[in-house]
Amino acid sequence: MTDQAQTLPSAGTFSGIVDGDARVRAGSSLEVKGIIGGDLIVEDGAEVRISGIVDGRVRFDDAKVDITGIVGE
């Protein structure tokens, strides 16, 4: 459920674990080294580097996303 997604920090590195969906807000610049147990929703204008694990999908439209980690779907 995306409306209950946990909001990740807006800058730096996230290396924790989220049990479910997670969201990166617009204007954020974040590296995800942790584990997301659901989908990762990246809002327009955010910059995200994924070097960790996303068990679900990475969902974005007008965001900069670099994936070197593992994505489930």
What brief labels describe this structure?
73 residues
Structure characterization notes:
The protein has strands at 6-7, 11-14, 17-18, 22-24, 29-32, 35-36, 40-42, 47-50, 53-54, 58-59, 64-67, 70-71. Helices cover 0% and strands 47% of the residues. Strands 1-4-7-10 form a 4-stranded parallel β-sheet, with no helix packed on it. Strands 2-5-8-11 form a 4-stranded parallel β-sheet, with no helix packed on it. The two termini are 16 Å apart. It is built from no helices and 12 strands. By secondary structure, it is mainly beta. The chain is globular and about 25 Å long.
In short:
This protein is 0% helix and 47% strand.
Q: Helix-strand pattern, N to C?
A: EEEEEEEEEEEE
Radius of gyration: 10 Å
Q: How many strands?
A: 12
Cα distance, first to last residue? 16 Å
* Helical/strand content category: mainly beta
- Tell me the overall shape: globular
The side-by-side strand order for the widest beta sheet comes to: 1-4-7-10
Share of helix, binned:
under 10%
Reported for the largest beta sheet, the result is: 4 strands, parallel
Number of helices: 0
The fraction of residues assigned to DSSP E strands is over 45%
Low-confidence stretches: none
Average pLDDT metric:
95
